[in-house]
Structure formats: C-alpha cells, structure tokens
Amino acid sequence: MRGWICLLAAGALLLFWGICPAGAENVTINATPAVVHIGDMVTLSGTVSGIRTIAVYLFVTGPDLDSRGVTLENLNIPAGHGLFTTAPVNMNDGSWNYSWDTSIILGNMNPGTYTVYVVTSPIDRERFGHSGYAKVEVAFLPPTMEPTPVPLCPDIAVVALAITIITGSCAIRGLKKI
What we know:
The protein is α+β, with helices and mostly antiparallel strands. It contains two helices and nine strands. The strands form two sheets. It has a five-stranded mixed beta sheet, with no helix packed on it.
C-alpha cells in the first residue's frame, strides 16, 4: 500500500511539473536616459521570459502622484481597473519597448525621481506579488526652457469682438422671425 502512495505522489509531482512552467516568470526594464529634463523623451525597454504574453503594462509613481501608480500618458489616472500604459511584446524574443514623450503627458510632473514599473498582468502597485514585475528609476530635472507665451496681436481682439457682435445679431434676428 505504501508503494502505491509513493507512486501516486511521484505521479502527481511529475504532472505538476508538466503543467507549471520550468522557469519562473521574469520581466526586466531599462530607461534610457535615466536622468532627463521634463519634456524630454525616455525610452523604456526590457524583456519578458517564463510566459508568453502579447503586452506588458507600465505605470509610474513619484512626487505628488497616486501611490498605486498612474498611467504614463495621464498622471491624473490611477493605474488599475484596465487603465494602463501598454507596450507590445515581440513574441519571437520576448523584448518590448515604449517611447515615453514627457512633453505631451497630461497632469503635473514636478522635478524629482520617478519609478516606472512594468508588470505582466494588469494590476497596480498595491496588488502585485514578488514576481512578474520590475522597476527602474528616472530622475527628472526642470524643463530646459520655460515655455514662452506667444503674444497676440491687438487686432485679434477687435476681430473676435466683431465676429461675436455679428453672430449675436444674426442669432437675434433669427429668433425674431420665429
């Protein structure tokens, strides 16, 4: 009887190894450059191994941002519940990359050190375990140039006022005919 139990346990162990992947799930991330000015481009790249997936999920934490992480395109949107920045994974070699243009993000990015996370499942920072994620720090310096306001020609205000008066009077005449 004891031999059957050992044989059954050995069979279950072999079945478990056959179902579970041989290697643990692993994901990496790199940021180039690691020190940039707000408004610059950051290239995020890495690899995924141990699983086959078509995309990785990215989010960022940093000064004055939600502690769960936020999307890279809109710093006002917490990561999670289907809201993530995604990067496609090359199915041949497991590599991925994402170009993060910090000049067109929504929200307020302050100078400081930000942590960019990559995960293999769409979960925020408070929900992932000890594997299936990686992180990299990116230091953001103040913008290289402050945006200069474009002066408006004084004639534009006059033209805008004239258009408002004309369209307003046309609207009033149209209401009188009704």
